[in-house]
Design brief:
Elements (H helix, E strand, L loop, with lengths): L3 E4 L2 E2 L20 H16 L1 H45 L5 H31 L5 H12 L1 H5 L6 H11 L4 E5 L4 E7 L5 E7 L12 H10 L5 H10 L12 H11 L10 E2 L1 H8 L3 H9 L16 E2 L6 H12 L17
Parallel strand pairs: 1-3
Antiparallel strand pairs: 1-2, 3-4, 4-5, 6-7
Amino acid sequence: MAYSGTQGNVPRDACPGGRVNRGAAACLSVGSLRVDRAVVDQVLDAIQPAGLQAALDAMEQALHEDATKRHAVELALEKARYEARRAQRQFDVVDPENRLVAGELEQRWNLALAQVSALESRVHRLHESSEPLSAPQRERLLELGTDLGALWQHPAASVELKKRILRTVLEDIVVTNTDEPRQHVLHLPWKGGVHTELRVARNGTGQHRRVADGKAVELIAELSTICDDKTIAVVLNRLGSRTGQGHTWRVHHVSNVRYGRRLPNYRHEGTWLPLEAAARARGVSNTVIKNLIADGVLPAPQVVRCAPWVIARVDLQRPPVQARIQAVHDGRTLPRPIRGQDELPLK
């Protein structure tokens, strides 16, 4: 659908041919999907009362067209039968010894008979197919008349037909934008002089229907404090997440989301560490750190099930953590603590 519009006080015509006129304000840019939906809904609501009558007219027209077609074919059949009888009479009066003429007339007679046979078959088919609509067919047609939305979305409804309907009832569509709130303001002048105003929400900068979903963005924001982009992409793919375009995550996809959302870029000297980095920082194996987390000695939340553990660097300095790590270095085994024992009241 084509729209005319203004940006502030600058007419859309200031940018002829779709080119941006750098000497004036920017041309108006409209995302058409949401606007199209709003305009179509308004038009369908306006013509809905005519839907049922259109369905009844369609039934009557179908029967009338069938009758007209049958009449035309029956006239053609009558003419073909006359031509066949005429060809037979000509053949009957010819001298049989004049074989050249007799053969030509016989061929004409055979062609006329073949034409009669074809038209008789066509008339028979038309009589069979021109039966009145059955009860289910009439019910379905009336349903479409009362539900123009379903009819509009039907695969057989061509774009050209939809445009003709819109141009029949609307003079034009004028669009202006407002910033507070962010909206497209649509002015619909109808045939006959009535005007309607619609307001459609506008997407914010960088927002569109193919943007990554909110859960993926939230997860990227959490993991950006402790993971590089490659690790984040691996986690998202393990969770079955997809980009706004439906692709698996790659490093550049994560980087683009971080850049667009102004999310932090992980650095190894940050205040948060993944499990492997924490193990290296304390000179122990990954298993030791896992045991500390499992025993509740080292706080380490996990954003999602398959995401890395989030370990604060300052938590590695906690006395219980240092005691357990020192025991590992000394080759000693400390008894594993009972979860929540520090919270038990002393008596």
